[in-house]
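Please fill in the sequence for the structure shown.

STRUCTURE ENCODING:
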């Protein structure tokens, strides 16, 4: 019966490390020796096989082969970060539910006939049914002139006039503004965490992979001598 033993080293004149041996095998039968320990990734080894019958032994010629480098998986992208421009220094934005007030208010529109922002008579809000006393200043004005313009207005006595092109007097409406209760979406603060950056203050930008100079999803070699080289599969 014959026993086959693998010997290896990192140079042709240093094949001094004993590797694995086969089970006793009849002459003429093929033998496979798998050396799966004691080796480093991405390293060239010289090796030979010594055959022994217990009394005599003979060695093969020297051969050499490199082990695979250890590969890691990469999605093929790199990330950078840019400052969010949608929020304040605390990474907050105005609460859209209460318009930054911290409480909900009635947005039902009511008519105004005398001045830009007040009434000369009591009015009943059709939305919340509250009474708006005479001469109460309403909160916001939505002016539309007779020509349909809604952007710029200028006061002229008790009336306002469109400043775009036509200078027509206004027909306006204001909203009620009656407080309806606490805004729980912002917990009465008037601000919420910026949804654009999720409160981080920075936006992640996805770019193509620059670390390995390889496009698309890939494995890359982690050894120092071939770092970044593409490898066909993952080797631990």
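FILLED IN BY: designer on duty
SEQUENCE:
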């Amino acid at each position: 019966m014959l026993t086959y033993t693998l010997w290896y080293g990192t140079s042709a004149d240093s094949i001094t490390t004993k590797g694995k041996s086969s089970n006793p095998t009849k002459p003429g039968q093929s033998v496979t020796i798998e050396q799966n320990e004691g080796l480093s990734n991405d390293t060239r080894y010289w090796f030979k096989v010594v055959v022994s019958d217990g009394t005599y032994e003979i060695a093969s010629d020297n051969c050499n082969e490199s082990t695979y480098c250890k590969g890691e998986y990469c999605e093929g992208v790199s990330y950078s970060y840019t400052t969010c421009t949608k929020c304040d220094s605390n990474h907050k934005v105005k609460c859209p539910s209460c318009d930054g007030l911290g409480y909900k208010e009635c947005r039902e529109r009511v008519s105004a006939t005398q001045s830009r922002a007040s009434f000369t008579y009591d009015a009943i809000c059709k939305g919340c049914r509250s009474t708006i006393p005479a001469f109460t200043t309403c909160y916001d004005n939505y002016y539309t002139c007779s020509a349909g313009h809604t952007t710029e207005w200028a006061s002229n006595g008790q009336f306002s006039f469109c400043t775009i092109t036509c200078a027509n007097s206004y027909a306006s409406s204001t909203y009620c503004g009656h407080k309806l209760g606490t805004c729980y979406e912002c917990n009465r603060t008037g601000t919420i965490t910026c949804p654009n950056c999720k409160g981080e203050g920075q936006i992640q930008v996805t770019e193509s992979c620059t670390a390995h100079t390889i496009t698309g999803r890939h494995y890359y070699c982690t050894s120092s001598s071939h770092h970044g080289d593409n490898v066909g599969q993952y080797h631990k």
